[in-house]
Amino acid sequence: MFQQFSLNHVYFMLTGLGWTIGLAAIALIGGSIAGSVLTLMRVSANPVLSRIAQVYIFVVQGTPLLVTLFIAYFGSTYLGFTVAPLTAIAVAFSFYAAAFLGDIWRGAIQSVPVGQREGAHALGLSGADTMRHIIIPQAIRIATPPTVGFFVQLIKNTSLASVVGIVELTRTAQIVSNATFKPLEVYLTAALFYFLVCFPITLFSRRLEKRLSV
Amino acid sequence: MNPLDFSGVFSRADRLVDGVWLTAQISLAAMVFALAIGVLAAVLSLSGNRLLRLPVFAYVEVIRNTPFIVQVFLIYFGLPALGLRLDPVSAAILAMSIYGGAYTSEIIRAGIQSINRGQIEAGRALGMSPLTIFRHVVLKPALASVFPSLVAQFILLLLSSSVVSAISVAELTSVGNDIQGLTLRNMEVYLIIALIYVALVAALKGGMTVLERLLFPFKFLRR
Amino acid sequence: MMRFVKGLVLAAAATAALSSATLAQATNTLDEIVQRGKIVVGISLSTPPYGMTDANLQPAGFDVAIANLIARDLGVELEILDQVSQARIPNLTSNKVDIVISSLGITAERAKAIMYTNAIYVDEQMIIAPTSAAIASLEDLVGKRVGVTRSTTNDTIITDKAIEGTNIQRFEDDAATNQALFSGQVDAIVSGVAAANAINKETDQFQRKFAVRQSPMGIGVRRGDFDLHQWLNTEIMLLWNSGEIQAAQQEWLGIVNEELPRF
């Protein structure tokens, strides 16, 4: 019953890594779109929209992602319809990422001094133009490091997708670890794979941070 | 589809309470240690000495770019091979502190870097000792300015405590998993667990807001 | 006949299509499986020897063997959906799978959430500890750390039988539970017969101390799915009479039950 931890298993884990990268792409794209919408709501002049965004951020940030995913996939049955695993993942990760990105990006936008907005207004720029040409370019500078940091956490969090039946990297590690009873070796291999994906992104972020801060 | 039935969850409320208590304890302990590690690592990473900076860089990047579960396993299952045997709760606190410390150090480093050098020189001109300058002119304002990011990180640390159920720590998620196994009522358990985590996060946020006013009253001065 | 990993992408789309069809018709699952020409079975592939992957990374194990026999006799294709333990029942109740074969121990409380078929295997839970340890009864476990995999039958039984003062530590999967024993983080573990045999084969540092109790395992069916439930019970009786259940037990679990309880 015990199998030796072999190259075959490592190959299996590589197929899992493929899924992990795919899921991360879905999460990053979906999360960025939803996060943008939420940020705009949060900084909008409309108090109702802003308030809704605030409550949303509070609730979703406080809920473990596994639970959000679980409810997105299985909870829909209680509402009388079903969703495919990838749809549930896209929805849950987008909702989750939106809450954190919305918060990070709001902070960045609000950290741009009010004087700039007033100056732009005095120069006759419209609200949308002020946002596009004055506020957002400066906010991006502040928001980049925490955004990339969050993206790396999001990549690692795709491990939760196994709950909807996707055999991604962490799940392959579980399967191999239980077949070989060598959890340390197997999980270290998985950690190495995660590191190889995440570390270049972190390094890139560090470099970007340095260049932007000059 | 079965109708929702919470009776199996509610009848085990006492176990959930135990789980919440343990989650709160290990999370708070980890926050304190993570903050200490974070300050130390931030200071070392800003020192001029390469020999001090490099290990901190390696620590931060290895921790941030690998899954937390692997770090937990290494501490609990790997350390005994080196002769250090920790009980599950100690191993969990240690793992969470190391994990949280890596993120915290990056936040605090950014805070320290945002301190105007002129302030430090002003402190020197006033005849303050280097330690006094560090504590009152550098660290305190730095922590004050990054406090919101620290709170956000502490929330993530609190939520990450759910992972340590893997090494048999009977915290909230672990109790939830037990009840799922006994009743097979997974959705019901998750709904209740999610509510409790939201409440815990709300409590943490509230506590941190009070702490912020106590520690950094200067942030709330009217201009 | 069995599509697995390569079928995952398709499974995503197929599951959605299949499930919405289920909801739309709300008919009975047995007819549907036959019409569809495929049965979707939820199995955890990380619980050897019940569900695992073989050397070619294909699904294997006792649960998989039983699923194959069932698909064969239904005359349909088999699709296996790998599942983590928290997803076993939600997959079933939300129509993502037709049945669950996942070393599901039968208890009265669990039977409120799903229907069980007749047993396909009766496991014996035993205490495994270092050979040198003097452990012969539940009394000897008082004050000791006993590891067990959470939510398994092993867990249910030791939780029920353990004497006050026994320190039960629950891990999330068998690999972690065994690792806890190997690394000395626990004094003993509770394990099924097959896992105990496997550990004995690997090393003589640990040995079986005593059996705690026997526990039957069944196939999980959605509540109210009586036609499918009845067909499966008929199938289990036939497979037992033909000796095929016994053969699967021998191959994967290394032990053959003398009889299986029917209810």
Automatic annotation (TrEMBL), chain A:
Residues 17-205 form the ABC transmembrane type-1 domain. Coiled coil: none annotated. One of its GO terms (molecular function) is transmembrane transporter activity. GO terms for cellular component: ATP-binding cassette (ABC) transporter complex. Its main location: membrane. It comes from the Bacteria. One of its GO terms (biological process) is amino acid transport. InterPro entries: AA_ABC_transptr_permease_3TM, ArtM/GltK/GlnP/TcyL/YhdX-like, MetI-like, MetI-like_sf. The chain crosses the membrane at residues 55-75, 81-101, 186-205. Signal peptide: none annotated. It is found in: Cell inner membrane; Cell membrane. It holds the Pfam family BPD_transp_1. It is a multi-pass membrane protein. Keywords: Cell membrane, Membrane, Transmembrane, Transmembrane helix, Transport. Belongs to the binding-protein-dependent transport system permease family. HisMQ subfamily. PANTHER family: BLR6398 PROTEIN, MEMBRANE COMPONENT OF AMINO ACID ABC TRANSPORTER. This is Polar amino acid transport system permease protein. It comes from Devosia enhydra.
Automatic annotation (TrEMBL), chain B:
It holds the Pfam family BPD_transp_1. SUPFAM superfamilies: MetI-like. Keywords: Cell membrane, Membrane, Transmembrane, Transmembrane helix, Transport. Residues 20-208 form the ABC transmembrane type-1 domain. One of its GO terms (biological process) is amino acid transport. GO terms for molecular function: transmembrane transporter activity. The chain crosses the membrane at residues 20-44, 56-77, 142-169, 189-216. Gene3D superfamilies: MetI-like. It is a multi-pass membrane protein. One of its GO terms (cellular component) is ATP-binding cassette (ABC) transporter complex. It is found in: Cell inner membrane; Cell membrane. Belongs to the binding-protein-dependent transport system permease family. HisMQ subfamily. This is Polar amino acid transport system permease protein. It comes from Devosia enhydra. The lineage of its organism: Bacteria, Pseudomonadati, Pseudomonadota, Alphaproteobacteria, Hyphomicrobiales.
From TrEMBL, chain C:
Residues 38-256 form the Solute-binding protein family 3/N-terminal domain. SMART domains: PBPb. One of its GO terms (cellular component) is extracellular region. GO terms for biological process: amino acid transport. Keywords: Signal, Transport. Residues 1-26 form the signal peptide. Belongs to the bacterial solute-binding protein 3 family. This is Polar amino acid transport system substrate-binding protein. It comes from Devosia enhydra.
